[in-house]
Amino acid sequence: MPSYKAPVDEMMFLLRDVLDVRSVFADMPEQADTDEDTIQSVLEEAGRFCSDILYPLNMTGDVEGCRLENGAVITPKGFAAAYHAFSEAGWGGLSASPDYGGQGLPRTIQILVDEMLSASNLSFGLFPGLTRGAVETIEAHATDNLKTLYLPKMIAGTWTGAMALTESNAGSDLGLLKTTAKPRDDGSYTITGTKIFISSGDHDMAENVIHLVLARLPDAPAGTKGISLFLCPKFLVRGDGKPGVHNNISVGALEHKMGIHAQPTCVMNYDGSQGWLIGTPHRGLAAMFTMMNAERLFVGVQGLGVADASYQTAATYALERLQGRAPNSNTTSPIIAHPDVRRMLLSMRAFIEAGRALTLFTALEMDKEKFHPDPAMRHAAAGLVALLTPVIKAALTDFGFEATVQGQQVLGGHGYIREWGQEQYVRDARIAMIYEGTNGIQAQDLVLRKLTLDDGQPVAHLFGLIRKTLNTAEPVPELASIRHAVQNAFTHLETVTKRLTDGDLSSTEERNAAAVDYLRLFALTCFGWLWLKMTLATRDNSDQAIRKLATAQFFADRILPQTASLASQIGTGSAAIMALPAELF
Amino acid sequence: MPSYKAPVDEMMFLLRDVLDVRSVFADMPEQADTDEDTIQSVLEEAGRFCSDILYPLNMTGDVEGCRLENGAVITPKGFAAAYHAFSEAGWGGLSASPDYGGQGLPRTIQILVDEMLSASNLSFGLFPGLTRGAVETIEAHATDNLKTLYLPKMIAGTWTGAMALTESNAGSDLGLLKTTAKPRDDGSYTITGTKIFISSGDHDMAENVIHLVLARLPDAPAGTKGISLFLCPKFLVRGDGKPGVHNNISVGALEHKMGIHAQPTCVMNYDGSQGWLIGTPHRGLAAMFTMMNAERLFVGVQGLGVADASYQTAATYALERLQGRAPNSNTTSPIIAHPDVRRMLLSMRAFIEAGRALTLFTALEMDKEKFHPDPAMRHAAAGLVALLTPVIKAALTDFGFEATVQGQQVLGGHGYIREWGQEQYVRDARIAMIYEGTNGIQAQDLVLRKLTLDDGQPVAHLFGLIRKTLNTAEPVPELASIRHAVQNAFTHLETVTKRLTDGDLSSTEERNAAAVDYLRLFALTCFGWLWLKMTLATRDNSDQAIRKLATAQFFADRILPQTASLASQIGTGSAAIMALPAELF
């Protein structure tokens, strides 16, 4: 039967041998104590919690789902107890500010724990994930009074957070939203409106739910420049800091979803609820963007985590399941002997390991952005984070979903039924391509904004790093063919990037048409670069080195050639996309 | 709200303008009366039935699902009544032999009706689909006595069929199956064993279920050459032809599946059930293969049908949903104005229309194989059918699934919830990549058997047809760039085919490793060929012509370049796939 084991060795290999986090953290006064032993013990402890407590609730939570009874959401059996254990162990405050009771660990560690949470129980992982997003927004933009009142409870996990953005007619285009906020005499506001798709909107696991709600003030300009952000607790907080009277926030319905059934996705009604402004009037979207990079990195990691869980089951099954004969064999073989089964497993591995490397590379840049004493380092890191965020969000969830589909295929008919859990991973992974900005929106963000950000410095910086690794690998004979494939991919990426930023494909329409293929080309090239970095870091005869070299070679031979066709596809331009009149679709 | 309309105009365009079925049927005495008016009225009538009766039951059937009560399967509300209406209208016997009450229409028409059934209600469509498979097997291999007893009732839909092949340890490798058959004194057999994943294994829609069961005789050799086929009715048939006593066939459980919830997929127990041999002892697999081509074509069409249903909803939504501003626009636009949304819709269309063309081309070859008076024509047609069957089964279900994922993405968050039906299409389409031989198995069939079938005549025949179309298109200036893209793809396909059949990639291991990528390359090239044929057939200023030219250009520009990278990937060989020791996965 399937199980999940957190890949702590893989994670430590990346932190120690590929990214050398020890020396990076050594430059940051606030992280100077974060040594490898500390990291490893945190990861091992988190891995045990995920395997022992959260993973066993994953399938039962899917089958039971959440339900709405008398206006209140009931989560599946075992979730509330698991959440209390999670909060008591302090996992909710891992990377939160010590000023409000957090442990202040770096994003690099947080994101690895997020991967484990996503792999073992995505529905569960969203509760603390959304709380953290709310915490980071409040910390960056709210008044000290609100911070003191809300942050300690949220960081402790006593209260959870929810993000109330989407309305039925305002999804990708938040400028269309209609929820209103009217000022009261006491400086607070009255919030009225209906929101949809609100994750963790209500539940029975914590004593209060703190909603961050986007709404319009009476004098708000139309569109995205007239949206403000408000804090609306489910229960108003009394003078003694305890939850008091109900704040007229109600659950209109639970959405019937394809997956993440144990996560209550709510239609929420705010019927004259009391709220407090966070940040500047009409600048609510900007305040939300503070935590957007972190949230999008988290969503990318969801795709990665679920893919790894699916891989673990598929690999176990392939080693045990006897069916057919391998080429040149006379006896029934475990299916891992069949080249096509290996192809599927290697495709999954090749993505998962490179995806994890890209995530960690980016998380470490986030840590530099936050903790590094040198402003120039912080600025450069911020640029890389801004550039890579949409790539990670979209590519890790696209490839992650594709990996779960392959992990299901390895099991044949047994992958289509509930028993082995593979079909749930496909259904759960699918949401990550949609929420927190669809992957199409991410691609637009990359091509229309991030490529030209800061006069193109971030992309030049990244390309410089890729070139450096290509140079380092040049004298290594056993990496020659991998290096060659990465060099080809990189040449395609550079050429297309130039055409999109100041060449024949730089109009808005062309860039929009190119965006999704371009993001895929960008991500595959980054994966190639990181495969080269990983193989450079493991040049001995260990199992680890054999595994890395074989998987890197597979990636170079069987996946990286896609960059050539992506470059061709983009190169033909938007004409074929725009030719058909809308009414003929 | 979503709906489904059978694309009868598209179907008639293919039949009339691309394939010229009228003149093909004119050569076949048994089909000489099948004229275009007849075909069109059959298709329109079938389309109405699917839209009005089956489509409205699709989502309710998914939500309610089947259940097992006191050992009997209860299908969702409305299914039994719909099935009776379906049978009364004679839809179950459309292409069945007139000798047993069928209408004897060609496969070409049957497969179009199958597409509509799959699009409007896949779970429902499997009931008559499996019955037809059983009918064709019985007709080809059973004794006259069995034929007379069973075929009229099955063709009328009074009884349904089920195929009992898989066991828990024998899926892709049927040679491992353990169900036994012991001879009785009266010439029948006693069948004992347990089968899993049995579609339509039991239900409440018809008065009897006729199981075709694979089992081993006492003296059977091991492996696939010791499997025999038996007919086992749920109720033994009395002397008057009515169902009599129960035959010890029971439902062990209903599988909990990702999708097709309204289709009862059963664990079936045969506890000393009485069965009758079909065909020769130990040659049961060969008897099953009779109907395999037709079944696999049907499964391919399931992928196509569900993709079209998803497209119809996605296109409707994209024309209505206002969100964001198109490039160069100042007002909120329907999302079809966004290039990336068009890209998704065009990808779906480009696949669906070419997939339908390939299906019809192949179905027409099946009709030639069956009805043509010239043995040489029958032989050539049989070769093309054998070659294209695995391509259609795998490519139409792979691309079909990918299309439903895109159709879901077009709707954003609304695609992830039940309301619009898009997430059900993804879940339902997923099974077609697995059953009736996984798509990996199909690719093996293509590369290991079909390429070298009949000394390679079928593949040479097909390549000749492609070359002919390329020549026809050569003088047409407006098709130049499409033709160029198809020529490139075809060159890749020819080169790789040569390497696989008698070049450096012709070992079993190499072919196994190449198979899935090769099948995709093969299918994309066929799609390109058929896009060229379709554009050649519509050179006027009609909406149809505009649509075909724009979609063909999109396919040539944005999808066909994938053939280059597939050729590269295959060209690197199996080394990278085989390098990693099994225990390091």
From TrEMBL, chains A, B:
Keyword annotations of the record: FAD, Flavoprotein, Oxidoreductase
Coiled-coil regions, chain positions: none
InterPro entries hit by this protein: Acyl-CoA_dh-like_C_dom, Acyl-CoA_Oxase/DH_mid-dom, Acyl-CoA_Oxase/DH_mid-dom_sf, AcylCo_DH-like_C, AcylCo_DH/oxidase_C, AcylCoA_DH/ox_N, AcylCoA_DH/ox_N_sf, AcylCoA_DH/oxidase_NM_dom_sf
All copies of domain Acyl-CoA dehydrogenase/oxidase C-terminal, residue ranges: 283-445
Xref: SUPFAM superfamilies: Acyl-CoA dehydrogenase C-terminal domain-like, Acyl-CoA dehydrogenase NM domain-like
Cofactor: FAD
Pfam families assigned to the protein according to its UniProt record, in alphabetical order: Acyl-CoA_dh_1, Acyl-CoA_dh_C, Acyl-CoA_dh_M, Acyl-CoA_dh_N
Domain Acetyl-CoA dehydrogenase-like C-terminal: 463-581
Domain Acyl-CoA dehydrogenase/oxidase N-terminal per the UniProt entry, residue ranges: 82-157
The Acyl-CoA oxidase/dehydrogenase middle domain, residue ranges: 162-271
Family listed: Belongs to the acyl-CoA dehydrogenase family.
Name of the protein this chain belongs to: Acyl-CoA dehydrogenase
Taxonomic classification: Bacteria, Pseudomonadati, Pseudomonadota, Alphaproteobacteria, Acetobacterales
